[in-house]
Amino acid sequence: MQVIISHVNLDFDGLASMLAAKKLYPLAKVILPTKQGKSVEQFLALYRDSIKYYSPNQINWENVSEVIMVDTASLKRIGEINNFINGEKVNFIVYDHHQPTEHNVISNETTIEEVGATITLLLEKIKMKNITITAFEATIFALGLYTDTGSFTYLTTTSRDLKAGSYLLEHGANLHIISKYTNTPLNEHNQKLFHSLIQKSEEHYYEGVTILIAYHQQNEYTGGLSLLANKAMEMTGTDALIFVVEMGKRIFIVGRSSSNRVTILPIIKHFSGNGHKKAASAMVKNYNIAHVLDIIRKSIRETVQPAVMAKDIMSSPVKFISSATTIDEATKMVLRYGHTGFPVVDENKLVGVISRRDIDKAKHHGLGHAPVKGYMSTRPITVHSSTVVEEIQKIMINKNIGRLPVLENNELIGIVTRTNVIEFLYGNKNRDYKNNAPKIEVSLIERMNSLLPRDIIELLTKIANLADKMNYPVFLVGGIVRDLILGRRNEDVDVVVEGDGTAFASKLAQEIGGGVRVHEKFGTATWRLPSGLKVDITSARTEYYDFPAALPTVRLSGLREDLYRRDFTINAMAIQLNKDKFGDLIDLFHGYQDISQKKIRTLYNLSFVEDPTRILRAVRFEQRFGFEMDEQTFDLAQTSVDKIRLTSKPRLAYELSKLLSEKHPIESLNRLDEIGVLNFLITVNSYDSSMIKQIKNFKLILDNVSKQLTNPQTNVSQAWICYLVLLFSKHDSGFEQVNMFTLNNENIKTIEEIKALLEGKYHFSKNNTSGSLHHRLKNYRIESILCFTILMQFPNEIVENITRYLIQRQAIPKIINGNDLKSLNINPGPIYSKILQQVECDYLDKKVSSKEEAILLIKENY
Ligand code: CTP
């Protein structure tokens, strides 16, 4: 026989879990413990007939072979049932969400997981097995869930509990009944007890957290202490509390915490109690209440984790200005960095703070040229590097300030902003605040091993080894990180080193080989390995870097600065390469999240103004990955388009070539048009949508030809320049305009070819054979010819002829060569290429198909 049991003083989670277990083990008998909690007792008084259960003495325990224990795993908590169970004979199946204790039964069928309520665990099984539940059952299950999670507000609540809740509501859980049993009003006695506890409570304050300890003595037992503890937490807003109530010979101890820094369970364990980290209780007999309180007071300090301080969450290094900076310059800084104000520092001393509002006001009054000195707050409120976050939060709220300079030895070492505090409170999972470093949640080692070729992995390991030796933090950055996350191949190794990058590159070359080219101006070096691999190395040094003492706290700020300067969040991630952290993702700006949400987002407001080519890049990434700019980024792109005009043509050309060489050039052009870029690329207003149509046709034909190319030597890399030719085709000086966007001789040649074809005035007709076309077009590349056919608006028959010719052309075999001509005693000279071309034309027109036939023909004609 199977039985289902739970703990004494049965609560709703125990009751719900027993009934849920019955759904999973339908043959088992539900046995109510002899004692139920007050609310459950009241509930059962009403619903007794709707639930089938037994009392322990209705069971023939001899026959019990399996015991399903829910909401407890401890034999100590099941009351007198413990006397009936023959522990050696029975098999236990356990479902529980409490911390294991030494009294737990031994079983290999245990499900003990940290969720808010045990019912969640059982419900997940019910769901998995597709077992139907009635609205009544859903209501009881929900009662268990709501009461044990404090209506989903206790810190023990998990997303699994909420999913369970949603499932129960879908199945008709009655909120009216739930609210009746969860909002139990205090009875008269408990009200008195509550007031006595609050009045007698003593406050203990440790580095920003407050813990209340309160006690009370009474002769008789009254239940509901947990409820009182929850109410007191709510009312006092304390971080944690411990209530100690002597009732007759027994002392009840209840602890609650709402702070991530206070774990109450260890104290309760002193008294052999149990529960969760933040909600636990114990009962002791034969103790003196003063002794209990003494133990609690002595050990309370241990429950508090070290405080998180200003230095742990602050941003550093700080962008500051001097008091002589003009309002105009300050305005630029505000725009550049998107900050809402700056500390003002003169000779290493903080002399004031100026907010964005002050700057705007001064500017509004025409004081752009005045120094900020006259408009800054001269007695700024600051915090020390060791001020705890809770204190910082209070200052920000009480004084309504959003930025607090952080001082150490009277020097500005960082700034804490509202964002820092909010990130800390609401969890930026990527930061480990105690180390002022990003917390690593994602390791990309496996991705790296599967996506990067062996030689690159070996190279990265060598880079890491040297960096470890030189004590430099070193990172892989940029597009390769993004692509590893996206699961795409990318072999561009860009490395950022927090140290002297040039020295690092030289040392690498010295130890591994290859040569280094230093680009002083940009603080970068390119290391070319003998194998042909290329590594770009950038130094990320901070203002503080020269002070070794400051290293542990500011180390990653160099990397942060480097990443912050980049175009989009998805391109501003890094992978650490140092040995013990190899493969760890560093994601300071939520790039990982943006990738999963398919978003292109700039890191700061002036990103496009500083580098308008980024607008083209944004469109490129949109099209390539099927992503989209977020609203703000799109707006910033639109408002910055005019800066395209000021951007150097080669830089634009480089980005255009990359953008238009991607898979979806038409969509990209449409998007550029939507943003308003095209009107700034084409200086005279000569762009209209008919050009996109031409480009579409061109691409259609080119794709069709490309698909049928069999000769791997044939290259069609000039399509993008043809798109530009088509785009500028109605422009008076179209070719000159396109010429400005050329990047290399190939591009120039393509344009020249199209021009020559247009000027050639050949007559094309539908009767042209491939041979006759070859005669005229042999020396022109595929893209130029097709671009020309579009510009000429040839009828379909001609286009088809030309297409057929191009496909045949790339597959012409070399049936004859110069040596063959020599052996025919033809004197070398320009005649050779003429003859060879003629053979090709004849081959295309099927007049010759072999060397012998060709030789025969040559002999006849020459
Ligand atoms: N970058 C930037 N602004 C630019 C160009 C580049 O911030 N105008 C940064 C980005 O962080 C980018 C990195 O430099 O990831 C490398 O640039 P690049 O090689 O041009 O681009 P990738 O992102 O690697 O893209 P692709 O895959 O097209 O090479």
Automatic annotation (TrEMBL):
The keyword Hydrolase does not apply. SUPFAM superfamilies: CBS-domain pair, DHH phosphoesterases, Nucleotidyltransferase, Poly A polymerase C-terminal region-like. One of its GO terms (molecular function) is tRNA binding. Its cofactor is Mg(2+). Residues 314-372, 376-433 form the CBS domain. The keyword Lipid biosynthesis does not apply. InterPro entries: CBS_dom, CBS_dom_sf, DDH_dom, DHH_sf, NT_sf, PolA_pol_head_dom, PolyA_RNA-bd, tRNA_nt/polyA_polymerase. Belongs to the tRNA nucleotidyltransferase/poly(A) polymerase family. This is CBS domain-containing protein. It comes from Anaerobacillus alkalidiazotrophicus.
